[in-house]
Amino acid sequence: MAVHINNVTFDCADARALAEFWQVVTGWELFYDDDPEVLLGPSYPYDGTGFLFIPVPEGKTAKNRVHLDLAPDDTTRDDLVDRALAAGASVLGDFRADDGSGFVAMQDPEGNEFCIERGRHEVGPRRPRAIRLTM
Questions:
Q1: 0.70 surpassed by pTM
Q2: Which ranges of 6-101 would DSSP assign to H, the alpha helix?
């Protein structure tokens, strides 16, 4: 059996504002209507995995157990870090190394953690880090 991830869902205080932050970071398109939920996706017509923002009454209280690792397609890791900072993100930890490797751990305006890594075009060919297991 195979599945695909339809959306990554963010519980949030202000769905529209958080979706607009992520729109700046991802460059994706915003989809909304009179519904309080807001969808952000990579293209129109919307097809593939997107981000769904749902307003909830409670605030974030602990570190996320799952987070996003972002890698730019058309810019550099450092430019994407700057774009996220300008949109309202904050740095939790800067793990960039002198040789250009590493990542930056960040959080969005509502405290959701994410990391920004180098894009494939910055890294070059990689050897696989894991083997494929079959059941």
A1: yes
A2: 15-26, 77-87
Over the stretch 84-125, which tens digit does the pLDDT of each residue have? 999 999 999 999 999 999 999 999 999 999 999 999 999 877
Kindly provide the residue ranges of all beta strands, DSSP E only, lying in the chain, ordered along the sequence.
Answer: 7-12, 29-31, 38-41, 50-55, 68-70, 90-94, 104-107, 113-116
Q: Please name every residue paired with 107 in a beta bridge, in sequence order, or none if there are none.
A: 90, 113
Burial class for 60, CB neighbours closer than 10 Å (0-12, 13-18, 19+): middle
Domains 1-59 and 61-127 share a fold: yes
Give the 3-state secondary structure of residue 22: helix
* Domain residue ranges of the chain, discontinuous segments joined by +: 1-59, 61-127
User: Domain 61-127 is in which class?
Assistant: alpha beta
The pairing of strands 104-107 and 113-116 is antiparallel
Distance CA 128, CA 121 (A): 16
Q: What is the domain class of 1-59 according to CATH?
A: alpha beta
